[in-house]
């Protein structure tokens, strides 16, 4: 992923004015992806975008919502207490549409996904506390994610799944439980 293209660089400075915004759209097309029933409420004050509520009812069979702050206009954006909720009824479609890496496993048991959490930091290096549930799998991760060159996690993971050894094997991870 080319994270540089997600910087807030522009010909004018968003740090120089304040605005309060409420917007609703039935359909927005961005990079060929349809964003359906988008609602935004927030403000831009002294270069900090306060998201009171951003919700996207449907994007690749996924429902998204966010609250929190984004700053760093004119450079790489920084998230401050950005809380999110993601729900999908088609995990494979979401992975493919967002260009995420797809593991070599059967997704039959992981069709629906719910995730929520909080992010602090930059797009390519951030702290996160997240809960994920899909099928019989539940996961909590609290730590940092560095994706500047490759994905590096540094934190605590709690994973619950009835067939953990088979899951890790499908992900290409050599794992044997300790007695």
Count of DSSP helices? Answer: 2
Count the beta strands. Answer: 9
Order of helices and strands, N to C?
A: EEEEEHEEEEH
Helix content: under 10%
Query: Strand order, biggest sheet?
Result: 1-2-3-4-5-6-7-8-9
Shape: globular
Mean pLDDT across all amino acids: 85
CA radius of gyration is 18 Å
Distance between the termini: 40 Å
Uncertain spans, ≥5 residues at pLDDT below 50?
none
Tell me what the structure shows:
- With 179 residues, the protein is mainly beta.
- Helix content is 8%, strand content 54%.
- The chain has two helices and nine strands.
- It has a nine-stranded antiparallel β-sheet with strand order 1-2-3-4-5-6-7-8-9, covered by helices on one side.
- The protein is globular.
- It starts with 18 loop residues before the first strand and ends in a 9-residue tail after the last helix.
Q: In short, what is this structure?
A:
The protein is mostly beta strands and 179 residues long. The protein is 8% helix and 54% strand.
Based on the model shown, name its key terms.
9-stranded antiparallel beta sheet; globular; mainly beta; single chain; 179 residues; 2 helices
What's the topology here?
Layout: E1 19-30, E2 33-45, E3 48-58, E4 62-71, E5 78-88, H1 91-97, E6 113-122, E7 125-134, E8 137-146, E9 152-160, H2 164-170
Antiparallel strand pairs: 1-2, 2-3, 3-4, 4-5, 5-6, 6-7, 7-8, 8-9
